[in-house]
Amino acid sequence: MFKYAKVFGLVVFVFLFAMCNQKSKNEEVKDTIIKGSIDITVDETLLPIIEDQVAVFESTYDAKIGIKTKSEAELINDLLNKKTKVVVTARDLSKEEKEQFKKLKITPRITPIGTDAVALIANKSNNDTLIALKSVIDFMQGKGDPKIKGLVFDNPNSSTVRYMKDLAKVKEIPATGVFSFKTNEEVIKFVSENDGMIGVVGVNWLSQPSASVAKLISKINVLSVKGLNDDNYYNPTQNDLAELKYPLARDLFIINCQGYSGLGMGFASFVAGDIGQRVVLKSGLLPFKTPGRKIQIRNRITNDKE
Protein backbone atom coordinates (compact mmCIF):
# COMPACT_ATOMS: atom_id res chain seq x y z
CA MET A 1 0.00 0.00 0.00
CA PHE A 2 2.83 2.33 0.95
CA LYS A 3 4.51 1.49 -2.36
CA TYR A 4 1.44 2.59 -4.35
CA ALA A 5 1.21 5.79 -2.28
CA LYS A 6 4.82 6.64 -3.18
CA VAL A 7 4.15 6.03 -6.86
CA PHE A 8 0.99 8.15 -6.74
CA GLY A 9 2.85 10.93 -4.96
CA LEU A 10 5.60 10.84 -7.58
CA VAL A 11 3.08 11.07 -10.41
CA VAL A 12 1.37 14.06 -8.77
CA PHE A 13 4.75 15.78 -8.29
CA VAL A 14 5.76 15.29 -11.92
CA PHE A 15 2.35 16.55 -13.08
CA LEU A 16 2.53 19.69 -10.92
CA PHE A 17 6.12 20.36 -12.01
CA ALA A 18 5.14 20.08 -15.67
CA MET A 19 2.18 22.42 -15.16
CA CYS A 20 4.32 25.01 -13.38
CA ASN A 21 6.98 24.77 -16.07
CA GLN A 22 4.36 25.19 -18.81
CA LYS A 23 2.88 28.16 -16.96
CA SER A 24 6.31 29.74 -16.73
CA LYS A 25 6.84 29.31 -20.49
CA ASN A 26 3.44 30.80 -21.25
CA GLU A 27 4.23 33.80 -19.07
CA GLU A 28 7.51 34.34 -20.93
CA VAL A 29 5.91 34.15 -24.40
CA LYS A 30 3.51 37.10 -24.50
CA ASP A 31 2.91 37.11 -28.24
CA THR A 32 1.95 34.84 -31.11
CA ILE A 33 2.33 35.45 -34.85
CA ILE A 34 -0.88 37.54 -34.95
CA LYS A 35 -1.52 38.58 -31.37
CA GLY A 36 0.22 40.39 -28.53
CA SER A 37 2.77 43.18 -28.44
CA ILE A 38 6.40 43.65 -29.42
CA ASP A 39 8.91 46.45 -29.95
CA ILE A 40 10.94 46.52 -33.17
CA THR A 41 13.96 48.65 -34.01
CA VAL A 42 13.98 50.34 -37.40
CA ASP A 43 16.70 52.00 -39.45
CA GLU A 44 15.74 55.68 -39.29
CA THR A 45 16.00 56.03 -43.08
CA LEU A 46 13.19 53.45 -43.45
CA LEU A 47 10.75 54.87 -40.90
CA PRO A 48 7.94 56.07 -43.25
CA ILE A 49 7.39 52.70 -44.97
CA ILE A 50 7.53 50.74 -41.70
CA GLU A 51 5.06 53.12 -40.05
CA ASP A 52 2.64 52.33 -42.89
CA GLN A 53 3.22 48.59 -42.58
CA VAL A 54 2.63 48.65 -38.81
CA ALA A 55 -0.57 50.70 -39.21
CA VAL A 56 -2.03 48.18 -41.68
CA PHE A 57 -0.88 45.18 -39.62
CA GLU A 58 -2.40 46.54 -36.40
CA SER A 59 -5.67 47.30 -38.17
CA THR A 60 -5.80 43.67 -39.36
CA TYR A 61 -4.74 41.78 -36.22
CA ASP A 62 -5.08 42.10 -32.45
CA ALA A 63 -1.47 43.23 -32.13
CA LYS A 64 0.55 46.22 -31.02
CA ILE A 65 3.99 46.95 -32.50
CA GLY A 66 6.13 49.69 -31.00
CA ILE A 67 8.70 51.33 -33.30
CA LYS A 68 12.11 52.52 -32.11
CA THR A 69 14.38 54.26 -34.63
CA LYS A 70 18.16 54.02 -34.50
CA SER A 71 21.13 54.24 -36.82
CA GLU A 72 22.19 51.08 -38.62
CA ALA A 73 25.26 50.56 -36.43
CA GLU A 74 23.25 50.98 -33.25
CA LEU A 75 20.45 48.58 -34.18
CA ILE A 76 22.86 45.84 -35.28
CA ASN A 77 24.74 46.20 -31.99
CA ASP A 78 21.45 46.02 -30.08
CA LEU A 79 20.58 42.83 -31.96
CA LEU A 80 23.93 41.23 -31.14
CA ASN A 81 23.64 42.30 -27.48
CA LYS A 82 20.08 40.95 -27.22
CA LYS A 83 18.67 44.41 -26.47
CA THR A 84 16.21 43.99 -29.33
CA LYS A 85 14.81 40.92 -31.07
CA VAL A 86 13.49 42.27 -34.38
CA VAL A 87 15.07 44.92 -36.62
CA VAL A 88 14.38 46.40 -40.06
CA THR A 89 17.58 47.23 -41.88
CA ALA A 90 18.95 48.22 -45.28
CA ARG A 91 21.43 45.36 -45.46
CA ASP A 92 21.82 41.67 -44.72
CA LEU A 93 23.99 40.49 -41.84
CA SER A 94 27.68 40.23 -42.65
CA LYS A 95 29.54 36.92 -42.50
CA GLU A 96 31.21 37.99 -39.25
CA GLU A 97 27.88 38.96 -37.67
CA LYS A 98 26.35 35.62 -38.63
CA GLU A 99 29.31 33.89 -36.98
CA GLN A 100 28.68 35.90 -33.80
CA PHE A 101 25.06 34.77 -33.74
CA LYS A 102 26.21 31.20 -34.30
CA LYS A 103 28.42 31.44 -31.20
CA LEU A 104 25.41 32.77 -29.27
CA LYS A 105 23.42 29.76 -30.54
CA ILE A 106 20.94 32.09 -32.26
CA THR A 107 19.67 31.50 -35.79
CA PRO A 108 18.33 34.81 -37.20
CA ARG A 109 15.35 34.59 -39.57
CA ILE A 110 16.15 37.02 -42.41
CA THR A 111 13.25 38.13 -44.62
CA PRO A 112 13.87 40.30 -47.72
CA ILE A 113 11.02 42.79 -48.15
CA GLY A 114 11.98 45.14 -50.99
CA THR A 115 14.49 47.48 -52.60
CA ASP A 116 15.11 51.05 -51.53
CA ALA A 117 17.05 53.85 -53.21
CA VAL A 118 19.55 56.25 -51.72
CA ALA A 119 18.53 59.62 -53.16
CA LEU A 120 20.79 62.61 -53.75
CA ILE A 121 19.09 65.98 -53.32
CA ALA A 122 20.12 69.58 -53.97
CA ASN A 123 18.75 73.05 -53.36
CA LYS A 124 16.13 74.21 -55.87
CA SER A 125 18.32 77.17 -56.84
CA ASN A 126 20.78 74.72 -58.39
CA ASN A 127 19.61 74.42 -61.98
CA ASP A 128 21.79 71.36 -62.64
CA THR A 129 19.72 68.30 -61.70
CA LEU A 130 22.31 65.80 -62.94
CA ILE A 131 25.19 64.35 -60.97
CA ALA A 132 27.79 61.67 -61.68
CA LEU A 133 28.30 59.07 -58.99
CA LYS A 134 32.05 59.39 -59.58
CA SER A 135 31.90 63.01 -58.41
CA VAL A 136 30.33 61.93 -55.12
CA ILE A 137 32.84 59.10 -54.66
CA ASP A 138 35.74 61.47 -55.38
CA PHE A 139 34.39 63.81 -52.73
CA MET A 140 34.09 60.91 -50.25
CA GLN A 141 37.73 60.06 -50.99
CA GLY A 142 38.77 63.60 -50.10
CA LYS A 143 39.53 64.67 -53.68
CA GLY A 144 36.85 67.35 -53.76
CA ASP A 145 34.66 68.46 -56.65
CA PRO A 146 33.88 72.01 -57.84
CA LYS A 147 30.16 71.19 -58.16
CA ILE A 148 29.84 69.98 -54.57
CA LYS A 149 30.26 72.32 -51.61
CA GLY A 150 29.47 69.57 -49.15
CA LEU A 151 27.74 66.24 -48.55
CA VAL A 152 25.03 66.08 -45.91
CA PHE A 153 24.15 62.84 -44.08
CA ASP A 154 21.63 62.04 -41.38
CA ASN A 155 23.98 60.36 -38.90
CA PRO A 156 27.65 59.29 -38.83
CA ASN A 157 26.52 55.74 -37.98
CA SER A 158 23.66 55.60 -40.47
CA SER A 159 23.11 53.12 -43.27
CA THR A 160 23.54 55.85 -45.89
CA VAL A 161 27.00 56.75 -44.56
CA ARG A 162 28.03 53.07 -44.48
CA TYR A 163 26.63 52.60 -47.99
CA MET A 164 28.57 55.53 -49.45
CA LYS A 165 31.77 54.55 -47.61
CA ASP A 166 31.49 51.06 -49.09
CA LEU A 167 31.06 52.50 -52.58
CA ALA A 168 34.01 54.86 -52.15
CA LYS A 169 36.08 52.12 -50.48
CA VAL A 170 37.04 54.37 -47.56
CA LYS A 171 37.05 53.60 -43.85
CA GLU A 172 36.46 57.18 -42.72
CA ILE A 173 34.54 60.11 -44.16
CA PRO A 174 36.50 63.28 -45.01
CA ALA A 175 37.26 65.59 -42.10
CA THR A 176 35.94 68.61 -44.01
CA GLY A 177 33.00 69.12 -46.33
CA VAL A 178 30.81 66.43 -44.79
CA PHE A 179 27.96 67.36 -42.46
CA SER A 180 25.77 65.08 -40.37
CA PHE A 181 22.60 65.55 -38.35
CA LYS A 182 20.28 63.09 -36.61
CA THR A 183 17.40 62.51 -39.04
CA ASN A 184 16.61 62.55 -42.76
CA GLU A 185 14.19 65.41 -42.13
CA GLU A 186 17.03 67.57 -40.81
CA VAL A 187 19.09 66.74 -43.91
CA ILE A 188 16.26 67.80 -46.22
CA LYS A 189 15.76 71.02 -44.25
CA PHE A 190 19.47 71.90 -44.36
CA VAL A 191 19.74 71.30 -48.11
CA SER A 192 16.56 73.32 -48.77
CA GLU A 193 18.25 76.29 -47.06
CA ASN A 194 21.80 75.95 -48.42
CA ASP A 195 22.85 76.11 -52.06
CA GLY A 196 25.60 73.78 -53.26
CA MET A 197 25.01 71.10 -50.64
CA ILE A 198 24.19 67.54 -51.70
CA GLY A 199 21.96 65.65 -49.28
CA VAL A 200 21.99 61.85 -49.00
CA VAL A 201 18.62 60.45 -47.85
CA GLY A 202 16.40 57.40 -48.09
CA VAL A 203 14.04 57.98 -51.01
CA ASN A 204 11.08 56.89 -48.89
CA TRP A 205 11.30 60.20 -47.03
CA LEU A 206 10.62 61.93 -50.36
CA SER A 207 8.00 59.59 -51.81
CA GLN A 208 6.00 59.51 -48.56
CA PRO A 209 6.80 62.79 -46.83
CA SER A 210 5.37 63.82 -43.49
CA ALA A 211 3.52 67.14 -43.34
CA SER A 212 6.67 68.98 -42.20
CA VAL A 213 8.86 67.39 -44.89
CA ALA A 214 6.28 68.01 -47.64
CA LYS A 215 6.73 71.77 -47.11
CA LEU A 216 10.46 71.42 -47.73
CA ILE A 217 10.32 69.24 -50.83
CA SER A 218 9.22 72.16 -53.02
CA LYS A 219 12.60 73.75 -52.22
CA ILE A 220 14.77 70.85 -53.37
CA ASN A 221 15.52 68.80 -56.48
CA VAL A 222 15.98 65.04 -56.54
CA LEU A 223 19.06 64.51 -58.71
CA SER A 224 19.40 62.07 -61.58
CA VAL A 225 22.52 59.95 -61.12
CA LYS A 226 24.99 58.57 -63.67
CA GLY A 227 26.55 55.27 -62.62
CA LEU A 228 30.25 54.45 -62.74
CA ASN A 229 29.94 52.37 -65.92
CA ASP A 230 27.10 54.16 -67.65
CA ASP A 231 26.65 57.27 -69.78
CA ASN A 232 22.99 57.74 -68.90
CA TYR A 233 21.37 59.34 -65.87
CA TYR A 234 18.68 57.56 -63.86
CA ASN A 235 16.22 58.47 -61.15
CA PRO A 236 15.35 56.73 -57.84
CA THR A 237 12.03 55.52 -59.25
CA GLN A 238 10.37 52.10 -59.10
CA ASN A 239 10.91 51.63 -62.84
CA ASP A 240 14.65 52.38 -62.77
CA LEU A 241 15.04 50.23 -59.65
CA ALA A 242 13.19 47.32 -61.28
CA GLU A 243 15.35 47.56 -64.40
CA LEU A 244 18.52 47.67 -62.25
CA LYS A 245 19.48 51.02 -63.75
CA TYR A 246 19.59 53.34 -60.75
CA PRO A 247 23.12 52.98 -59.30
CA LEU A 248 22.27 53.65 -55.63
CA ALA A 249 19.87 50.79 -54.85
CA ARG A 250 19.88 48.73 -51.65
CA ASP A 251 17.86 45.74 -50.45
CA LEU A 252 15.75 45.84 -47.28
CA PHE A 253 15.39 43.10 -44.67
CA ILE A 254 13.55 42.21 -41.49
CA ILE A 255 15.86 40.29 -39.15
CA ASN A 256 14.11 38.31 -36.43
CA CYS A 257 15.95 36.77 -33.46
CA GLN A 258 12.94 35.97 -31.27
CA GLY A 259 13.67 32.26 -31.45
CA TYR A 260 10.01 31.22 -31.52
CA SER A 261 6.87 31.71 -33.61
CA GLY A 262 6.04 35.15 -32.27
CA LEU A 263 4.84 38.50 -33.51
CA GLY A 264 8.20 39.20 -35.16
CA MET A 265 7.66 36.24 -37.48
CA GLY A 266 4.05 37.23 -38.08
CA PHE A 267 4.97 40.81 -38.98
CA ALA A 268 7.81 39.74 -41.30
CA SER A 269 5.50 37.29 -43.07
CA PHE A 270 2.86 40.00 -43.41
CA VAL A 271 5.28 42.53 -44.95
CA ALA A 272 6.64 39.88 -47.33
CA GLY A 273 3.10 38.76 -48.20
CA ASP A 274 0.60 40.14 -50.71
CA ILE A 275 -0.81 42.99 -48.59
CA GLY A 276 2.57 44.09 -47.25
CA GLN A 277 4.12 44.08 -50.72
CA ARG A 278 1.26 46.24 -51.99
CA VAL A 279 2.07 48.73 -49.22
CA VAL A 280 5.71 48.72 -50.42
CA LEU A 281 4.55 49.27 -54.01
CA LYS A 282 2.33 52.19 -52.98
CA SER A 283 5.17 53.76 -51.02
CA GLY A 284 7.30 54.24 -54.13
CA LEU A 285 9.82 51.52 -53.28
CA LEU A 286 10.27 48.28 -55.20
CA PRO A 287 8.59 45.22 -53.63
CA PHE A 288 10.62 42.03 -53.24
CA LYS A 289 7.70 40.20 -54.86
CA THR A 290 5.49 42.06 -57.30
CA PRO A 291 1.87 41.72 -56.12
CA GLY A 292 -0.33 39.88 -58.59
CA ARG A 293 -3.28 41.40 -60.39
CA LYS A 294 -6.48 39.54 -61.14
CA ILE A 295 -8.07 40.34 -64.49
CA GLN A 296 -11.73 39.49 -64.93
CA ILE A 297 -12.75 38.77 -68.53
CA ARG A 298 -16.42 39.37 -69.34
CA ASN A 299 -18.22 38.09 -72.43
CA ARG A 300 -20.35 41.20 -72.63
CA ILE A 301 -20.32 44.70 -71.16
CA THR A 302 -23.10 45.36 -68.71
CA ASN A 303 -24.45 48.70 -67.66
CA ASP A 304 -23.66 49.15 -63.95
CA LYS A 305 -26.52 51.61 -63.64
CA GLU A 306 -29.11 49.01 -64.56
TrEMBL record:
This protein's source sits in the domain of life called Bacteria
Sorted alphabetically, the keyword list is: Signal
> Mind telling me which Pfam families this protein's record contains?
PBP_like_2
**Gene3D superfamilies annotated for this entry?**
Periplasmic binding protein-like II (3.40.190.10)
What the entry lists under InterPro entries is as follows: PBP_domain, Phosphate_ABC_transporter
- Record has Signal as a keyword: yes
| Boundaries of every PBP domain copy | 36-273
Q: Which PANTHER family match?
A: PERIPLASMIC PHOSPHATE BINDING COMPONENT OF PHOSPHATE ABC TRANSPORTER, PHOSPHATE-BINDING PROTEIN PSTS
Q: What is this protein called?
A: Phosphate ABC transporter substrate-binding protein
